[in-house]
Amino acid sequence: MTRPITLSFGSDSGETAVSNIFIDEYMTEANGAYVKVYIYLLRCLGDSSMSISVASISEKLDETEKDIIKALRYWEKQKLLHITWDAEGQINSITLNPLNTETHKPARIISLSVSEPEAAELPVAEQPVEEAAMQITKPSYSARQIAKFKQHDDFNELIDYIEEHLGCTMKPSDLQTPAFLYEQLGMSADLIRFLYDYCLYSGKTAPAYIEKVAISWHEKGVDSIDRARVQVFSRSKECSAIKSAFGITRSFGSIEYEFIDRWRFTYNMSVDMIVEACSRTLLNLGRPDFKYTDSTLKHWHEHGITDAEGIAADDSSHAERVRKTKASGSQMRNQTSSNKFNQFSQRSYEASDYDDLESRKIGKL
Fold first, then answer.
1. Where does the chain show beta strands of DSSP type E?
2. Are strands 81-85 and 6-9 parallel, antiparallel or unpaired?
3. Pairwise CA distance, residues 112 & 110, whole Å
4. Which of 47, 97, 113, 117 is deepest in the core (most CB within 10 A)?
5. What burial letters (b/e) apply to 23-50, b meaning 16+ CB within 10 Å?
6. What's 237-311's CATH class?
7. Residue-level pLDDT at 357
8. Same fold, 143-234 and 237-311
9. pTM above threshold 0.70
10. How many angstroms separate the Cα of 33 from the Cα of each of 46, 184, 222, 224?
11. Would you identify the CATH topology of the domain 6-108?
12. Within 13 Å and on the Cβ side, how many CA atoms surround 248?
């Protein structure tokens, strides 16, 4: 159960209005959920009867407690507030710093120098990737902190999942990595599962390697399984093979990745099948065309074609249908027309008939 938090203001402002400096310099750059948290704190300052806690803010704003803490830390890095923590790692008090022309620094706080190690907690989109890579440091979590993480069902289930796939029980030192990904990088449990699946599939089980990949994803804004899947596939040999078949040297766009996902996960096509469809597209059209390739793969999917033998049989069947169609058309053209001018018996004439006709014509002259 979370304890109440003491909230105070650095100076007696006598009001709860939102500062124009906050609106102009901070609000537009921050995550919307973070803005909600800050404004709600201002609201609480205006009513001394309100008792707040991380849990109460979470319930009021319909955000997770983890997201509330991330928001508070974000604003602390922006120098808008100061947090004090107790010995058990819980927030004890929050002091909001006043914003005015005397205390406000024009330089944006997000442009932090490397000497400020806590800047890594800023969202990736709001700081240069080079700075983020240097500023992200892995803390050393105590047994008490790890125990607190395990109070979250999603983290507990995550550890069970990792242990199952590793085939062993994780030692306390091994728990540092998932704790770092979960707390410091703010990755969801589902995304961490995907990360471990990817690393273990690649034969990489070292915590240092997993952390390196996680930090790289964090810097690139990979915050969902869909984005992670694109990131992983873009670096794969399979992706290179499809680019080669299409004659493409650039990176695929988001819509093109949607087509590729459909081919791989909806049509369940192997990369060899996709490459074959891409090659046929290039031969038939002389250019890449994802819609044309999609129609080819959809046809194979609907007809249960999953390998080269199936393609060959389908090609043969298609060629036979074309041959029969052409033969049928030729036969129709060779048939006697059924119009009314050809539906009577034709007369036959001999040489004597022509002589008799000529004599009668002459006799009339």
1. 6-9, 81-85, 91-96
2. unpaired
3. 5
4. 97
5. eebbbebbeebbbbbbebbbebbeeeee
6. mainly alpha
7. 67
8. yes
9. no
10. 21, 18, 19, 17
11. Arc Repressor Mutant, subunit A (1.10.10)
12. 20
Residues 6+ apart with CB under 8 A from 315: none
Q: DSSP 3-state assignment of 126?
A: helix
pLDDT, average across residues 198-212:
89
- The DSSP bridge partners found for residue 81 are 96
CB 219 within 8 A of CB 127: no
Model confidence over 136-174: pLDDT tens digits? 778 888 888 888 888 888 898 999 999 998 888 888 888
DSSP structural state of residue 109: T
Total residues belonging to the chain:
365
User: Side chain identity at 364, as an amino acid letter?
Assistant: K
Spatial CB neighbours of 346, under 8 Å, sequence gap ≥ 6: none
Residue 51 structure tokens: 């008792």
CA–CA distance, 306 with 325 (Å, rounded to integer): 27
- Residue whose structure tokens are 């209005």: 17
Residue 220, burial from CB neighbour count under 10 angstroms (0-12, 13-18, 19+): middle
Q: In the chain, pLDDT over 90 holds for what percent of residues?
A: 25
91 compared with 192, residue with greater pLDDT: 192
In this model, does residue 58 exceed pLDDT 60? yes
pLDDT grade, residue 20 (50/70/90)?
confident
The class of domain 143-234 in CATH terms is mainly alpha
Domain boundaries, the chain: 6-108, 143-234, 237-311
> For residue 269, which of 293, 246, 253, 288 has the smallest C-alpha distance?
293
Q: What is the distance between the alpha carbons of residues 162 and 305, in angstroms, rounded to a whole number?
A: 36
- pLDDT confidence bin for 113, thresholds 50/70/90: very low
